Amino acid sequence: MTGLKIALIGSTGMLGIDVNSTLKEAGFFIQNYNSLNLDITDKGRVMASLMKLMPDYIINCAAYTNVDLAESEKDKADGVNHAGAKNLADAAKEINARLIHISTDYVFDGTKKTPYKENDEVSPINEYGLSKLKGENAIKESGASYIIIRTEWLYGKNGKNFVNTILKLADSKKKIEVVNDQFGSPTYTKDIASALSEIIKKDNGSNEVYHLTNVGTVSWFEFAQEIIKVFKRINCEIMPVSSNKFIRPAKRPANSVLDCSKIKEHYKIELRNWKSALRKYCLDIGYFMS
Ligand SMILES: NC(=O)c1ccc[n+]([C@@H]2O[C@H](COP(=O)([O-])OP(=O)(O)OC[C@H]3O[C@@H](n4cnc5c(N)ncnc54)[C@H](OP(=O)(O)O)[C@@H]3O)[C@@H](O)[C@H]2O)c1
C-alpha cells in the first residue's frame, strides 16, 4: 500500500496542504504540484509532467475558488475548474492513473428542502458552481477512472475561511451580523484529508460521485455563535440577519446540506460531528496552549 505514488495537484491550497501532510504520514509517496510548477490549464505540460511521474493516483485539490470574482472572471474560473479538470482526466486516462477530484455543493441550486444526494438534479446558480459542474462532467466523459468528492463550507489552518474571518472580526467588533437563512455542514479540511487516505486504502475501483462533510447542519449564524463559544470570544455578540442584507456578486444556495450516506455505505467513512471537528481545529491551531 505505501508503495503507491500520488500526484497532488493544488498542494499549496487550504485543503491541499492538509492532504499532503496526512497522506505523507500515512506512508504514501507524494509529488506536489501548484500553479507555479504545473498550471493545469496547460494541457501539454499536464500530460508531460504526469507521464514522467506515472502516478497511481492523481488527487485534484486545485481550483479557482473565488466565488464572487468568478462572476466577472468566468473564463478564468472555467479554465481551471473545467478545462483544468479535463486536462487531468485526459492525462489520468492516458497513464491509467485513478483521479480523485474535489468538487462542491455549489453544483446544486439550494432549493431542495432535504439534504442533497449524489444523483439529485444539478443546477448551479453562480459561475463558480457552473465551472465546477462542467469539470465534473468532463471527468465523467473522459473515460478516466475517477472518484468525485463533493464537499462544502471548508475551513483549515492554511487558508481564508469563515472560522478565521469570524475570529478576526470578533477581536475588533462588539457585534457581528451573520446570515441565518443559508444552511450547510461546516467541514474541517483535516477530516477530508484523512478520509481521502482511507478511500485510497479501501478503493474498490468504481467510478463514483460521493458527498463528504462533517456531520450536522447549521446556519452560518449558528456556526458563528459556536466559533465565538469555542474560541471564547465572549465579548462579541453574533446577530442574525437575512442574506438580503448582504448582496454579493454571486448568489449562494440556501440549502447546501449534502447527504453523505453513500460513502458511509461503500467505504464505511463517516466524518465526526461538525462541533467536535471545530473543537479539534481549535486544539490543532494551538488556541488552548496560547
Ligand atoms: N473552500 C471551501 O469552502 C470549499 C467548499 C467546497 C468545495 N471546495 C473545493 O475544495 C477544493 C480545495 O479548495 P481550497 O479551499 O483548498 O482552495 P484554495 O485554498 O483556493 O487552493 C486552491 C489551489 O489551487 C491551485 N491552483 C489554482 N489555479 C491553478 C492552476 N491554474 N494550476 C494549478 N493549480 C492551481 C492553487 O495553487 P497556487 O497556490 O499556486 O495558486 C492552490 O494550491 C477545490 O476543488 C474547491 O473547489 C472548497
Pick out its properties.
6-stranded parallel beta sheet; single chain; alpha/beta; 290 residues; Rossmann fold; two-stranded parallel sheet; binds NADP nicotinamide-adenine-dinucleotide phosphate
Q: Count every beta strand, where a strand is a DSSP E run of 2 or more residues.
A: 12
SS element count, helices: 9
Q: What is the overall shape?
A: globular
SSE order in H/E notation?
Answer: EHEHEHEHEEHEEEHEEHEHH
- Helix fraction by DSSP (H/I, runs of at least 4): 25-40%
Query: Which sheet architecture does the biggest sheet show?
Result: 6 strands, parallel
User: Uncertain spans, ≥5 residues at pLDDT below 50?
Assistant: none
Which percent range describes the beta-strand content? 15-25%
Q: Ligands bound here?
A: NADP nicotinamide-adenine-dinucleotide phosphate
CATH superfamily of the domain at 5-160 and 188-216 and 256-272: NAD(P)-binding Rossmann-like Domain
| CATH topology tier name of the domain at 5-160 and 188-216 and 256-272 | Rossmann fold
Structural class: alpha/beta
Q: What's the architecture of the domain at 5-160 and 188-216 and 256-272 in CATH terms?
A: 3-Layer(aba) Sandwich
Mean pLDDT: 96
Give the arrangement of secondary structure elements.
Blueprint (H helix, E strand, L loop, with lengths): L4 E5 L4 H12 L3 E5 L9 H11 L3 E4 L13 H22 L2 E7 L22 H16 L2 E7 L2 E2 L6 H9 L4 E5 L3 E2 L2 E2 H14 L5 E4 L6 E2 H11 L6 E5 L19 H7 L6 H11 L6
Parallel strand pairs: 1-2, 1-3, 3-4, 4-5, 5-10, 6-9, 7-12
Antiparallel strand pairs: 8-11
Helix pairs in contact: 1-6, 2-3, 3-4
Bound molecules: NADP nicotinamide-adenine-dinucleotide phosphate.
NADP nicotinamide-adenine-dinucleotide phosphate binds next to helix 1, helix 3 and strand 4.
